[in-house]
């Protein structure tokens, strides 16, 4: 008997509808935001164009670290209580239980928008408008690279060496080693923090 590809997350049809998202939606929502912030940063003329570009690419790089931290410490947070199990299921457990559910492979706007507001505010108040905005614009594009990569490795046949490698890296995280492979768009921080996924789970000793 084949395993179901999806499940309900909420009894409410309204909440259930918001738990599902078309894979193009984050790009439609966030590319205009990032583009406008870059345009505004350049048009203020308080930084050279190369300075804006440099901060933008630093923001892309910063996302790779945020992706790793969020995936490792937030999405995989667990607490063995009814509420703890429910929170984990809503945040990420549903994806591990139903990894090929095409409506839940990118981040719903109900989660990405508040998260984006928090990150924007953090960069604005710690870096200031001039530096924080182009940095945040790059951060957004880094996030979109993550969402796009995540959807692609689950639903598209990978034909390039990089694509095949990223798919294998992520599938090991799903099917062999939940304690490794937290980078999806890049394995960089798995290498740095020694959490590359292993082909077989570690067997308990004794």
UniProtKB/TrEMBL annotation:
Q: A single Pfam family, by name?
A: FA_hydroxylase
Identify the cofactor(s).
Zn(2+)
The record's keywords, sorted A to Z, are: Endoplasmic reticulum, Fatty acid biosynthesis, Fatty acid metabolism, Lipid biosynthesis, Lipid metabolism, Membrane, Metal-binding, Oxidoreductase, Transmembrane, Transmembrane helix, Zinc
| Chain ranges passing through the membrane | 21-39, 51-70, 105-123, 135-153
Q: Per UniProt, what is the membrane topology? A: Multi-pass membrane protein
UniProt KW Transmembrane keyword = yes
Organism superkingdom: Bacteria
- InterPro entries per UniProt: Fatty_acid_hydroxylase (IPR006694), Scs7 (IPR014430)
Where is it located?
Answer: Endoplasmic reticulum membrane
User: Boundaries of each Fatty acid hydroxylase domain copy?
Assistant: 56-195
Q: Determine if Transcription regulation is one of this entry's keywords.
A: no
User: What PANTHER family would the database entry show?
Assistant: FATTY ACID 2-HYDROXYLASE, FATTY ACID HYDROXYLASE
Q: Provide the protein name.
A: Sterol desaturase family protein
């Amino acid at each position: 008997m084949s395993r179901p590809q999806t499940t309900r997350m909420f009894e409410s049809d309204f909440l259930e509808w918001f738990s599902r998202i078309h894979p193009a939606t984050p790009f439609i929502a966030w590319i205009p935001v990032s583009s406008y912030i870059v345009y505004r940063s350049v048009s203020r003329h308080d930084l050279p164009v190369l300075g804006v570009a440099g901060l933008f690419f630093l923001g892309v790089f910063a996302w790779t670290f945020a992706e790793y931290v969020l995936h490792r410490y937030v999405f995989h947070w667990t607490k063995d209580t009814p509420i703890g199990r429910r929170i984990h299921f809503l945040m990420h457990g549903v994806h591990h239980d139903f990894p090929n559910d095409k409506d839940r492979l990118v981040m719903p706007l109900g989660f990405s928008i508040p998260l984006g507001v928090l990150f924007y505010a953090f960069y604005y108040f710690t870096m200031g408008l001039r530096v924080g905005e182009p940095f945040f614009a790059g951060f957004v594009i880094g996030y979109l690279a993550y969402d796009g990569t995540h959807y692609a490795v689950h639903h598209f046949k990978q034909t390039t060496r990089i694509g095949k490698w990223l798919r294998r890296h992520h599938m090991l995280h799903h099917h062999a080693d939940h304690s490794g492979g937290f980078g999806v768009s890049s394995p960089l921080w798995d290498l740095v923090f020694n959490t590359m996924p292993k082909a077989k789970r570690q067997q308990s000793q004794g």
